[in-house]
Amino acid sequence: MQSPPARTLPAVAKKTKTFEFPEHLRAAQLALEEARAVHRAYREGLPVWDRTSEQVEDGWSEEQRAEEARLREAERVAAHLVWAHDFWKTVEVGDVVDARTALMHLEPVA
Fold first, then answer.
1. % helix / strand / coil in the chain, to the nearest 5?
2. Looking at the record's lineage, which domain of life comes first (predicted)?
3. 98-99-103 Cα angle (round to 5)
4. Is position 16 within any domain?
5. Which pTM value belongs to this model?
């Protein structure tokens, strides 16, 4: 006995909302992306001995440890400015994920 042919369901287009982000939130997001890029680039240039961060950091100089800590803190502060911004209080609960995703995918204003 043959199985009935597989049914394909029609694609459902999701309505995409647009969000009006305040300029200082947009700037904070761009600053966060820059802080992440600088931190990542710095870490990529450090000696890597193993996969565990404790063992990796054993091979770093005091200057490298201090710079890595400074860059990590700069990234943390930048992230805090984005996620703690008052704009998020104005977004409906069901739209927060879409709004945060939209903010992360903004193109820099020329």
1. 60, 0, 40
2. Bacteria
3. 115
4. no
5. 0.74
